[in-house]
Amino acid sequence: MPTTTAPDRAPAAGGTRRRRALAIGALALGAFGIGLTEFVVVGLLGPLGDDLRVSVSTAGLLVTGYAASVAIGAPIMTAVGANLPRKTMLVLLMALFVAGNVLAAFATTYGVLMAGRIVSALCHGTFMGIGPIMAASLVAPEKRSRAIALMMTGLTLATVVGVPFGTAVGQRFGWRSTFWAIVVIGALALAAILLFVPARPNDAGEGLRGELAVFRRPQVWLVLTITMLGWGAAYAAITFLEPILTEVAGFATSAVPWLMLLFGVGLTAGNLLGGRLADRAVMPALYGTITAATAALIVFAFAAHSPVPAAVMVFVIGAAGFAMVPVLQTRVLDAAEGAPSLASSVNASAFNVGIALSAWFGGLAIDADLGLTAPIWIGVAMGVAALAVAAAASAAAHRRSAADRFAGTAPG
Fold this sequence. Notes:
InterPro entries: MFS, MFS_dom, MFS_Efflux_Transporters, MFS_trans_sf. The protein is built from 17 helices and no strands. It has helices at 6-9, 17-39, 45-52, 56-80, 86-106, 110-137, 144-173, 175-196, 207-213, 218-239, 241-248, 256-280, 282-303, 307-322, 324-335, 340-367, 374-409. Helix 2 runs antiparallel to helix 6 (110-137). It is globular and about 50 Å long.
């Protein structure tokens, strides 16, 4: 099913495979910087908390605050730029991202650091909403989920390469040096987008009125809810992965970058697999990936007490969790066919609402002395809820399809 407006469905006229690859690569580099900003704090909660004299649970609020800012900022920023060409929006968003990380790099207090993360988070949802639409527009419709997955590989490589490197740099030279590295990456991504992402006539969205109209469709709201719950389930463990691995599994702090590398390899494999599965059949892929992620969390809750099983499950959680990403992104583009920009950006918000909720509830559980594995069980509950909403969405779609068939065959 096509998911974008007519000018977006066909690859750019006269475009070559190399030019398309460079364009998707530029988008992926932007996603890399964004992913690094979001994820690297997870590996630095201890050093950062010690330097700023805050507890681990308070330091964890840097994850919650970032996610909440994405959730709030994505629809607002997309609405503000609804009539701008998509490339122009991407350039402006990446410039804002760089500014936010400069502020974070200069931070000497917890409040200033949180402010820098909020500023950089404002670009996150809209970039990750418009970026997949741009990536899908560069390839044939039947390859759109794989193009989305390739762009999202920037996020996974941020974990495979960026987070271990950023964690190691932060532990060796101080956490501020990690944010300065992100500033450089953001500047390179900005230049690459300017050079390689094609600017085409009529490349703006459908306007605010058209973008808002898709929210009258129940399936849009249902898939946003699935995204929030499904990704929240995965992130319940991810947010507190560093303290779980060091305090529950018994790993040394020096092992954390290598474990994050293993986690990132799982993310990359799962993301690419999810793209292929979504191109074959979206709904079966949706059920399968959420079920796999929920099952992985259950196993991890028990395996986290032993180093070797915990390390294995770090890979599995990464693979199962990120396999959901291109599936969920493709599903929301289907549900919002015709005017996908705002819905896609709000889907990025839904990802981060899930992150914020799971991090918040996880922090409350830890503060209530329920143990560091308590957030994992919160994730399991969210995964089960996501499957229930997916079943309700399928039932509603079948009822709508049956009603349409009946209306089509009824005598006029």
